[in-house]
Amino acid sequence: MILTKSSYFFIILLFLAFLGFWESYFSKILNEINIYTHFHAATMLLWLSVLIAQPFLIKYKKISLHKFIGRTSYALVPLLIISVILLAHSQITIHEYGVSYSRLYILFLQLSLLAIFIIAYGLAIIYRKSPNHHARYMICTSLTLIDPAVARIPLNLPPLPFSYQVLTFSLIDIILLALIIIERNQKYAREVFPVMLVIFIVFQTFNLNWTDTTAWDSFSLWFAKLPLT
């Protein structure tokens, strides 16, 4: 049931992305936005389009087209990965004291979500001959898009006694917990969502606690100095 209806979740996610990025990107798409942002937006929109289309193709027995689009991901995903790295690099400014803390934090967020995406996609490909595993790992790739989209929605929340980041992280974890509960009687691939929940929590914990360390500061400065953008 989850797999056949996942397209609707991806459509909602696409709507949230438009809402979240309207002010910073879509409303200014013809203005002075750098090529790296356009590149990333294009690859991410293509990925969401793939996610939306694939469950519908399975539902309506368009298996050959489903497989063809799936094979295109072998080209699309590397481009998406490159787009994230270039975008992250282009947003860094090196000051006389190094990289600012806010950018250290955002860089870790960008790269950690990318790492989770790669893990989920990689497992989906490894299990491509097991439809139950494959589809669930593909769903998990979409969860990496929740934080970037939701964090930008102008909710006008009152001051919180904790980081706003905790809200977006919690939303992802709650979705995974809900999926785990819904699938508690599932016979096949029931372990996928618990595994991905652990992976998300590990990276989220690092994100909230490790971005002010000397090690990350050194890595960020090294990354910023690479001749990428």
Radius of gyration over alpha carbons? Answer: 18 Å
| Number of spatially distinct domains | 1
The tally of beta strands, per DSSP, is 2
Fraction of helical residues: over 70%
In sequence order, what are the helices and strands, one letter per element?
Answer: HHHEEHHHHHH
Give the strand order, joined by hyphens, for the main sheet.
Answer: 1-2
Uncertain parts:
none
Looking at the structure, what is the overall shape?
A: globular
Strand content: under 5%
| Major β-sheet annotation | 2 strands, antiparallel
Task: Write structural notes for this entry.
The protein has nine helices and two strands. The protein has helices at residues 2-21, 35-59, 63-90, 101-126, 131-143, 146-150, 164-182, 192-209, 214-225, and strands spanning 94-95, 98-99. A two-stranded antiparallel ribbon has the order 1-2. A hairpin with a 2-residue loop joins strand 1 (94-95) and strand 2.
